[in-house]
Specification:
single chain, mainly alpha, two-stranded antiparallel sheet, 2 strands, 79% helix, 4% strand
């Protein structure tokens, strides 16, 4: 019974974080599509934008860590510049999955990767998708005290 109440405590927060993350990805994609020359959307529909944001989020969760693992040596040698290439690859993969998103050149993908990386990181911190490190440590200490009691 205790496990069920613990699970209920975490579901609403995680659900809200997932929705906020989806909206952050949608806003990031919308800014990139509207302001970046060389990146276009054939159909301007909000539902399609949300679907593309979900696809981008899934690619960032499953494919991006693999790409970062494959390029880990380059990550240290280039002082993190290879992360721009990884973000560009994820943006390009999103355009491969969703045919209505068109990326005309590698330069558009690279600049779009920079914008997506910076804007999504900023918005994730602003809206609380990624909690501050002190908050995470406080939760872990509280859980350790609960278990000790």
């Amino acid at each position: 019974m205790k496990q069920l109440t613990d699970l209920r405590k975490f579901i609403p927060r995680n659900w809200k974080v997932a929705v906020v993350g989806l909206l952050v990805n949608a806003a990031t994609l919308a800014v990139v599509i509207v302001f970046m020359p060389g990146i276009e959307l054939l159909e301007y529909r909000f539902g399609l934008l949300l679907l593309m944001a979900a696809g981008l989020g899934l690619l960032e969760v499953f494919v991006k860590p693999l790409l970062q693992l494959l390029t880990i040596r380059l990550l240290f040698v280039t002082y993190g510049v290879v992360l721009i290439v990884v973000n560009a690859a994820i943006l390009w993969l999103t355009s491969v999955v969703f045919k209505s998103l068109i990326i005309e050149s590698i330069w558009a993908a690279l600049i779009g990767g920079i914008v997506v990386g910076l804007m999504s990181t900023f918005l994730d911190y602003v809206f609380g998708v990624i909690p501050p490190l002190g908050y995470v440590q406080a939760i872990q200490e509280e859980e350790a005290q609960h278990e000790a009691a």
